[in-house]
Amino acid sequence: MERYARLSMGTVFGHYMDRITSMRFTKAKKNISIFAKPIDIYYRIPLGMVSSYLGITQETLSRIRAEK
Predict the structure, then answer these.
(1) How many domains is the chain partitioned into structurally?
(2) Looking at beta carbons, which pairs linking 31-35 to residues 24 or more positions away fall under 8 Å?
(3) Whole domain around residue 63: which residue ranges?
(4) pLDDT tens digit string along 14-60?
(5) Count of CB atoms within 10 A of residue 54's CB?
(6) Cβ-proximal residues to 47 (8 Å cutoff; 6+ apart), any chain
């Protein structure tokens, strides 16, 4: 049981570190395209929630969405 918990926590930690790295070192447009690609509900979620999740301002998110 301890081994399973340790391995699963390692996987969760790895995903968490990938997300942090992605948010910190990639451009906002790329983050939005990664976030919006698998999620069809993306355009129904309020801008504030999406921008908070992506770590950008609502204004930036609105500008990027308007370009598409």
Answers:
(1) 1
(2) 31/55, 31/56, 32/61, 32/64, 32/65
(3) 2-67
(4) 888 887 787 777 777 777 777 766 666 767 788 888 888 878 888 88
(5) 19
(6) 58, 61, 62
